Amino acid sequence: MSTSPNQFQQLTTFYVGAELFGIEVTKVQEVTGSTFVTPVPLSPMFVCGLVNLRGQIATAISLAELFMQKPSEQNEQMSVVCRHEGSLISLVVDNIGEVVEVNLEGFEKTPETIPTNIRRFISGIYKMNGVLLSVLDTESIFKELSPVGDGATVKSNL
Amino acid sequence: MSFSAQEIEEFKVEATELLDVAEKSLLELDKDGDFKDCFDSVFRGFHNLKGAAGMMEFTALQAHTHELESIWMSFKDKQSIPKNYVTFFCRGIDASRLLLAGEMVTFDYHIEDAEAATSEVYKPIELLKEKSSLADELPESAIDEFLVECDEILDIVSSKLQLMEKGVFDKSVLDDLYRNVHSLKGSAYLFSFNNLGDIAHAMESSLEKVRNGTHSPSSQLLNFLFKSLEVVEAMLKRMKARESDEAFIPVIQVIVKALHKASEFLIETEAKTSVQIDEPSSSLPPEARVNEDAILTMPAPQVHGSKEKEPEGLGSIRVPVSLLDSLMTLMGEMVLVRNQVLQYSNKTDDLEFLSMSKRLNVVTSEIQGEMMKTRMQPIGNVLEKFNRVVRDLSHDLKKNIHLVIHGSDTELDKSLLEAIKDPLTHIVRNSCDHGIETPEIRRQSGKPEAGSVTIKSYHEGGQVVIEVSDDGKGLHKEQLLKKGLEKGLITSAQAELLSDKEIFDLIFAPGFSTAAQVTNVSGRGVGMDVVRTNIEKIGGSVELSGRAGFGTTIKIKIPLTLAIVPALIVKCGTGTFAIPQVKLEELVRVDQHSSSKIEILHGAPVYRLRGNILPLVDLNKLLGISGSSYTNYVDASINIAVLNAENITFGILVDEIQDTADIVVKPLNKLLRSLQVYSGATILGDGSISLIFDVTGISKVAQLSQVRSRVKEEESNKMSEIQEFLVFKLGSATNHALALNYVQRLEEFKFSDVETSGDQRVIRYRDKILPLISANVQLGYPDSEKASDTFPVVVIEKSGHFYGVVVDEILDTMSTTLEVKDPIKNHRGIFGNINMPDRLVVVVDPFELISMALNEQAELVAKPRDIEIGSRADHKVVRILLVEDTVFFRKAIKSVLDKRGYEVILAQDGIEAIEILNKKEFKIDLIVSDIEMPRMNGFQMAAAIRKNPTYTNIPMLAISSKADKQYRQEGMKAGFDIYLEKLKPEVLLAAVAELQRNNKVAA
Questions:
Q1: Residues B326-340: b if buried by 16+ CB within 10 A, e if exposed
Q2: Of A47, A51, A158, the CB nearest to B530
Q3: Chain A residue numbers touching B670 (CB-CB < 8 A)
Q4: Rounded distance, CA B228 to CA B803, Å?
Q5: ipTM
Q6: Distance CA B330, CA B334 (A)
Q7: By the 8 A CB rule, do B515 and B426 touch?
Q8: How many CB atoms lie within 10 A of CB B387?
Q9: How far does A136 lie from chain B, in Å, by closest CA?
C-alpha cells in the first residue's frame, strides 16, 4: 500500500460492541439488516450460519465471536457483506456507522498490546477525531474460512 | 502478423480436434478399418493442420505436419500402412500436440524404411486425379467440412489479393497467399474436385515466380486471380448444392491458360517492386490481352437453387464454456424462483395466477432440459482416446489387446467428462496391464490369444453407467487377501471374515497394488484408491466384480450433471437438510407396530434390515443438535434413511422426511467443507437454505468404518451360522420352536373338518390324509382351550409322508446365531434350548414327535456295546467328515458326534467335501452326509467319492429328512453304507459305531 501524503481512503464503519471498525468501501458489496440465518451444525462458534442473499448463499460470521468477545444482547444486528473470489461472507456487527474518508497519513500499525485474537484480523488503526478506528483485514478473515490442509485440498493434489 | 489470444485459443482447439480425428482414423486403419476412408481422414488431418498452423504462424508445427503429410502420402497407393509406421505416425501426432502446446520437439522422420520418407507431397496428389468418383463416396459431412474450409481459404486469398492490389508485397502476404492457394489445391484434389484443383493449381503456379521474389505481379495477373476466385466461389456454391461443376470446365480452361500466360510475361523485379502494378496491359503480348477481356467479361455459369441451402453452414457456433456456465447458474436461479412461485401458487385461489405458474413450471423445466443439453457431450470424446492408449499399451506390454467401445454416444456433462477421464484411463491401463494375460498364458488357458477390453456406457436411472470389463485373468481372492495381509490393510482374523465383495474392495484401499512387479504402466500402489476418490468426488460410485480366470468388470456410476441434483429433504432439529438421491437406498419407518425394532449394540443403535445389521447414525447427536434427539430408540416412531457411501451401507435417524426436490447445488466455503459433513447448500422453494449432506463424509465423521468392522464380524458369523426357527405356543409358559427347514407349510384347519381313522385324528389335505399330531399331547402339556373354531397346523414331511403337527398358536419366525443348548433334562422330542436375551425357547424335534405319536421304534437302538466301541476309539481319534448344508443340523450332528469323542470336520456341500478329501490334509475315517444340498447333492457326492480308488471302502452314512424307500434305494446305489432319517442321536451314533466296526473288520 502506498503511503504518499494526502491520499484518501473511504471506509465503511461499523461497531462491534463499543469499538469502531472499518472496511475499505470497495470491498463491501452491501449492508443489510438482520436476515434469517440457517445454522450450520458442527461449525465453529464464529460461524452464525448461512444467509440467502437474493439467491446467493453467504456465510454469516459473527465478528464478536471471531474476536472472542461476549456477543451483544442486541436483537437487531446488521451485516456487512463482502465478496471474495466468488464467495460471499456476511459480517454480523452490532451497528453500522457512516462511510468516512480517512487520510492515509493517519494510518498506524496496530499496537502490540491489542489481544492477538483481535489484532490478527486488523491491518491498522486510524486516528479519528475523538475515536480510534480499527481497519478490518478482510483477507485474514477469508483465510480463516479457508483452512489449509483440509481433506478436500489434499485429495485434489493427488 | 499477430493474433489475439482468442484466435490462438480457437486455433488450438481446432488443431486438437484435427489431431484427434487423425489419430482416431489412424488407429481404425490399424484395426483393418476401410483403407480409403481412414487414409483420407488422416491426410485431411495433417493437411488441414499444416495449413492452419501456417496461417497462425506456428512454423514448427507447420513444418512438422508437412513432413508427416508427405510421408503419409507415400502410402497412398500401397493400400496399407505397416505397423511400425502406425506407431511412427502416432508419435508424430504426439509431437504435434507438444508443438501445439508450445514445446520444442526434435522429431526423427527417418524411420527404418527410408524410401518412404522421400516422396514429395505433390506426386500422390497427381495420382489422385485419376480417381474421379471419389467425391461420390465421401461422406456428406466430410464434403461440408471441406467446403467450409474452402470458404475460409477464399476469404483469406481474396483479402491478400486486395492487399497486393494496394501495393503491399510483403513476403508474409505473398507466403500466405501462396500457402492458401496450395491448401485449396491439395484439398480439392483429395476430394476429387479436380476442376477446382486444376484452377487452384494454375493459381498456385502463376504465383510461384512472384513468391520467389524474382518477379513482380502484374495488374493483369491480379485481375486473373480475382476472376479465378470468382469462378471458384461460383463452383463452391454449386458444390454446396451437390451439383456438378461440369459447366465450369470451359471457363476453367480459359482461366488456366490465361494465368499461365500472365505468369510467363511477368516482369522481373530489379529489387524494387512498387511501379509494376501500373504496368499497362498493352505491353502484354496480344494473346494475353485478348484473353483478358474475354475472361473478365465472361459470365459465370448460373447457379441454380443453391440459395436455400446456404444457411446450412450455420448449424453450429462456438460458445465459450464460461458463458454456458453462467447461463447454467442463472438457470439454477430460475429453477429456484420457479419453485418459490409454485409454492406460493399453492396458497392462492387466483386461477389466472395458477395457470401462469403452471406454464412457468413447464417452460422452466423445458429450458432446464435444453440448457443441460448444451453442456452435454458424447462420452465417445473421451472413450475414443482409449483406442490409442490400448494400442500403445498392447505394444509396450507385448500383449494382443482389442478395445471394444459400446455406447460412445451416451451424453454426459462436460465437466464430468473431464473428471472421469483420468480415472477411466487408470482403469483401462490396469485392465491391460494386470487383467489381460500374455498371449502364451492365454493360449495355455484356452482363451483366444487376443484379449479384449470392453467399455460400455449407458444411461440407467438418471445416472450414467460406464462399465470397463476385460476377459483377462480376473481377480484371485487369495492373492488379494495375501496382498492385503502383507500391506497390513487387514488382519488375518479379518481376512477370514471378509465377504467376496469386501475382498474385491481391498483393491480400492490406499497403497494396494496387485501387480507382482511395478511396471511403468501401473503398479505403483497409488491407483484404484485415487480412482475411487475422484469418482466419489463427483458424486459417483465404483464397483468391482469378477471371477478368477474370467476377467474383471469395473462399473462406474456417475450423475448426469453436478449442477442440479435430485435430493430428499429431511428435517433434523430445526434445520432442513438435503440428501442426494444417488446415495439414498431406501427409507424405513420404525414404530411400535414394526416387527423389527432398533436395538442397542454396545451403546450404538443398530437395526436389523432384512436380516442384516444396519449401523445407525443419530443425526441429531452427530450434528450436536440438542432437544429433539431420540431419547428412546425402542418406543419412538423413527425415520431411517438408508444410505450408501463407499460401499458402506448405514442408516441415519432423521426427525422428519419432507419431500424430494431438484436442488441447485451451491458450493460452501472451505471452512464449512472441511467439516466433511456437507457437500454444499441449496435454496429451497420457500427461500430457506438447506445444507446438503456429504454422505461419505458423514460415514467418516461417524467413524462408520469402525462400526462396520465390528458389525462385519457379527454379520459374517450370521451369514454362515444364522438359523431360522418357527416359534409357536404350546400349553406351556415357554415358547417352543422348530427349525424352519422342517416346515413344509403352515395351515389353518377347521375343527369341524377333523376326522378320525382308528384312534388317529386326520384331516383331508390335498387329496391325502394328513395325520394330526398334537405337540401338547406328545410333550405332556395340557391341551389348551380353544376359543376359535380353527387351529394352526405345521405340515411336516417325513419319509415321504405328510404329518400335521398341531400347535396352539403360531407366533413368529426368528433368526438367531445362538446355539441350541442341550436340554436341562433329557426329554424325547426335544432338541434343546436357545437362550434368547429376553427369554428361553425350547426347540422341538418334529420327527421325534411324529415317531412318538406313531409309536415307532427307533430303527436301530443304540446298545451299550456300540457306545463303548465309540468311546474306546478315543485313544485313536476317529475323524468324521460331516457334510451338511443346514447350519442347525450341522451343529446338532456335530455336537452329538463331538460328545462321543469323534473329531468332526465340516463341509457345507458335496463339492467342499470332495475338496477336503482331495486335499488329503486329514485322513478321513468316515463320512456322514446330508442328501439335499446345493451345488452337489449327497447322491452325486457319494458316487463321485466311490469312483476314487482311495475311497472305495470309506464308510459313508447318509442322514436325511427325505428317507422314503425310493431315496434310500438311490442312496444305497450311490454308495452309502447306511441311510438314516434325521435326526436321532442314538441311532446316528449306533450307525457310526457299526460302520466303524465293519470297516475295521474289513481292514
A1: eebeebbebbbbbbb
A2: A158
A3: 145-147, 150, 152-153
A4: 104
A5: 0.84
A6: 6
A7: no
A8: 19
A9: 20
What is the DSSP code string of B698-750? HHHHTTHHHHHHHHHHHHHHHHHH-EEEEEEE-SSSSEEEEEGGGEEEEEEEE
Angle made by CA atoms B846, B851, B855, in degrees to the nearest 5: 150
Question: Which residues of chain B are within 8 Å of residue A157 when distances are taken between CB atoms?
Answer: none
pLDDT digits (tens, 9 = 90+) for B807-834: 888 887 777 766 676 666 667 777 777 7
Q: Helix, strand, coil % (nearest 5) of chain A?
A: 20, 45, 35
Alpha-carbon span A83 to A77, nearest angstrom:
20
Instruction: Determine the distance in angstroms separating the CA of A91 from the nearest CA of chain B, rounded to an integer.
Output: 15
Question: Could you tell me the three cell numbers for A36?
Answer: 434469517
What type of residue is B228? S
Task: Tell me how far apart the alpha carbons of residues B560 and A18 are, in angstroms, rounded to a whole number.
Answer: 53
Q: Which cell numbers hold the place of B442?
A: 492365454
Q: Provide the grid cell at B138.
A: 465421401
Q: Coil, strand or helix: which one is B962? A: coil
> Which of B528, B628, B672, B679 should one mutate to test binding to chain A, selecting the residue with the greatest count of A CBs within 10 A?
B672
Torsion angle, CA of B910/B916/B918/B920, rounded to 10 degrees?
-150
What is the DSSP track for B387-448?
HHHHHHHHHHHT--EEEEEE-TT-EEEHHHHHHHHHHHHHHHHHIIIIISPPHHHHHHTT--
CA B246 – CA B198 distance, rounded (Å): 13
pTM over 0.80: no
Cα gap B823→B814, rounded to integer Å? 19
8 Å CB contact of A55 and B575: no
Interface of chain A against chain B, CB under 8 Å?
36, 38-44, 47, 49-52, 55-57, 59, 87, 89, 144-147, 150-153, 155-156, 158
Q: Taking a C-beta distance cutoff of 8 angstroms, is the pair B192, B134 a contact? A: yes
Q: With beta carbons under 8 A apart, name residues in chain A contacting B573.
A: 41
Q: CB distance B575–A38 less than 8 Å? A: yes
Q: What is the gyration radius of the CA atoms in chain B, in angstroms? A: 42
**Which grid coordinates belong to B468?**
470397463
Nearest to A93 by CA among A83, A73, A78: A78
Are B847 and B981 in contact, with CB atoms under 8 Å apart? yes
| B165-202 residue pLDDT tens | 777 777 777 777 877 887 787 777 777 777 788 888 88
B905-935: pLDDT as tens digits: 888 888 888 888 887 777 788 888 888 887 7
Reply yes or no: is the peptide bond before residue B849 cis, omega within 30 of 0: no
Closest residue by Cα to residue B38 from B14, B22, B20 = B22
Question: What is the count of residue pairs from A and B with beta carbons less than 8 Å apart?
Answer: 81
Q: Measured between beta carbons, which residues in chain A are less than 8 angstroms from residue B673? A: 150, 152
Q: Do A147 and B574 touch (CB under 8 A)?
A: no
Instruction: Report the half-sphere exposure of B247 (CA within 13 A, side-chain side).
Output: 16
The span from the CA of B641 to the CA of B655, in Å, is 10
DSSP B241-276: TT---GGGHHHHHHHHHHHHHHHHTPEEP-S--GGG
Beta bridge partners of A37: A51
Q: Which of B620, B589, B618, B590 is CA-nearest to residue B605?
A: B618
Mind telling me how many Å the CA of B383 is from chain A's nearest CA? 23
Q: How confident is the model at residue B569 (pLDDT cuts 50, 70, 90)?
A: very high
